[in-house]
Amino acid sequence: MPDPGTPDAETHAGPPSVGGRYPVEQRGLFFEEFDVAALYQHRPGRTVTEADNVLFTTMTMNTQALHLDAAWSATQPFGERLVNSMFTLSTMVGSSVAQLTQGTIVANLGFSAVTFPHPLHHGDTLYSETIVTDKRLSNSRQGQGIITLEHTGRNQHGVVVGTAVRTVLVWCREAAL
Q1: Can you tell me the distance from the alpha carbon of 30 to that of 168, in angstroms, rounded to the nearest whole number?
Q2: pTM
């Protein structure tokens, strides 16, 4: 009979670590754990630097002067360089991973309704949140479900700088274990 203070194989999966303690692994949510209408706030925020913007822009081969050329950008409507909108989108989605899909996602299925209603500037802090708007079991992939997520990014003043609807395929708990 196992020691009452020690989990056994029936109640805990995974090997004990040093000292007989069992690790708690960070993971996203399985299909069953997603709650439609839940609002997930992803913290901490991400303060965007000039280096972030230039590195992302050049790594993705985006030669748009609005992100790279300070003199030219000064003559444009915003009067300065703007953060690459794809960086904004990537950071909004990326900030949700640890909380929602780390290790439980099968695939991103697509994005829709992507908007950037206000620019993000160097030095702004991006805060992201996600609402679960729909979920259903997959008709073609047993043990997996489809989740629809609405991501919103706001700057430090609460101004919306980006939105996107993302559809993901995730594991159901029983199929993943």
Answers
A1: 12
A2: 0.85
